Recover the amino acids of this structure.
C-alpha cells in the first residue's frame, strides 16, 4: 500500500542509520565542532526522537521533552549561514550513506532545509 508518511516509507532503522551517519560528520566538521558537545550520544538520541515525529511517526520527542520549540532551543548557539550550510551538507551526505532513496531523500532534505533556515540566529560576521 501507499505509505502515509516519510516515517512509514523509510522505517525506524533508517532513521537510526541517518542520525548516526549525520553526527559522525558533525563531530568532524570544523564549522560545527565549536558549538556541539564532545559526546554526541545524548544529542543523537534526542535527534532520533525528534526526526521520528518530524517524519510522521510516533511523538517520541514530545513525550520525553515537551514541545520542541526548536528555534528557542538553538538560541544559545550562534547559528550563522556558514553553520546552516555545514549542517545541511552533513545531512546531505548522511542521507546518501543511509541509502535513503528518492523521492524520500529529496522530500526529507527540503523539509530539513526549511527548518535549518529557521534556526539561523546570527549574522556571518559575529561568528
Ligand atoms: C540540538 C546545532 C539545525 C534539531 C542542537 C544543538 C546544537 C545544534 C549545537 C545542541 C546539542 C546538544 O547540546 O546536545 C544546530 C545547527 C543547525 C541546526 C548549527 C543548523 C541550521 C537543526 C535542525 C533540526 C535540529 C534543522 C531539526 C530538523 C535539533 C534537536 C536538538 C538539537 C532536536 C536537540 C534539542 C534538545 O536538546 O532537546 N542543534 N542545529 N537542529 N537540534 Fe540542531
Amino acid at each position: 500500500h501507499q505509505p502515509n508518511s516519510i516515517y512509514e516509507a523509510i522505517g525506524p532503522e533508517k532513521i537510526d542509520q541517518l542520525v548516526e551517519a549525520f553526527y559522525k560528520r558533525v563531530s568532524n566538521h570544523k564549522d560545527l565542532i565549536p558549538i556541539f558537545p564532545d559526546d554526541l550520544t545524548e544529542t543523537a538520541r534526542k535527534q532520533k526522537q525528534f526526526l521520528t515525529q518530524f517524519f510522521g511517526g510516533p511523538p517520541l520527542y514530545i513525550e520525553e521533552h515537551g514541545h520542541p520549540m526548536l528555534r528557542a532551543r538553538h538560541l544559545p548557539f550562534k547559528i550563522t549561514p556558514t553553520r546552516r550550510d555545514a549542517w545541511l551538507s552533513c545531512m546531505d551526505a548522511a542521507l546518501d550513506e543511509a541509502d535513503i532513496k528518492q523521492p524520500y531523500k529529496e522530500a526529507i532534505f527540503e523539509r530539513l532545509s526549511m527548518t535549518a533556515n529557521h534556526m539561523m540566529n546570527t549574522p556571518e560576521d559575529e561568528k
The chain has one domain: 10-126. The radius of gyration is 14 Å.
